[in-house]
Amino acid sequence: MSEEAPRRRHADRVSITPTFVGAGSKLTGNLECEGDLVVGGHVNGEGSVRGAFTLSEGGHWEGKIHATNAVIAGEVTGTVSVSEKLEIRKSARIRGIVIARTIAVAQGAVIDGEMSVTSGTPVVSYEEKRKD
């Protein structure tokens, strides 16, 4: 993909073999993931994701999560640290600290805490129009 090509949403580019924590699952502890991680269940701990992190609607994360890119549609209590792009969907509820190079927040998302953009660019606000 060239630098000039339009960028797809991170949720559309999930790797072929992501790691899943499915709805109804509970995980307590630290998790290191070399690829992408998709969470629909409940995680209490710290996570390090070298690929894209997706917290699905209905998913919960308590603790600290660091990822290269992330899409948050569920609930986070703790710290979200993203080295590149963070997309916060309208169903997201975040209580804690959010740090990313770039941040896009859908209208309706709730962020109760601190938000920091490391690139110095403004936070992008958007209206979610498509269903997943």
Outline the secondary-structure elements:
Layout: E1 19-21, E2 26-28, E3 31-33, E4 37-39, E5 42-55, E6 60-72, E7 75-88, E8 93-106, E9 110-117, E10 124-126
Parallel strand pairs: 1-4, 2-5, 3-5, 4-5, 5-6, 6-7, 7-8, 8-9, 8-10
Distance between the termini: 24 Å
User: Poorly predicted ranges (pLDDT <50, ≥5 residues)?
Assistant: 1-6
Give a short account of the largest sheet.
10 strands, parallel
Domain unit count: 1
Kindly estimate the percentage of residues that lie in beta strands according to DSSP. Answer: over 45%
- Count of DSSP strands: 10
Quick description:
By secondary structure, the protein is mainly β.
Write a structural description.
The chain is mostly beta strands and 132 residues long. The protein is built from no helices and ten strands. It is globular. The protein starts with 18 loop residues before the first strand and ends in a 6-residue tail after the last strand.
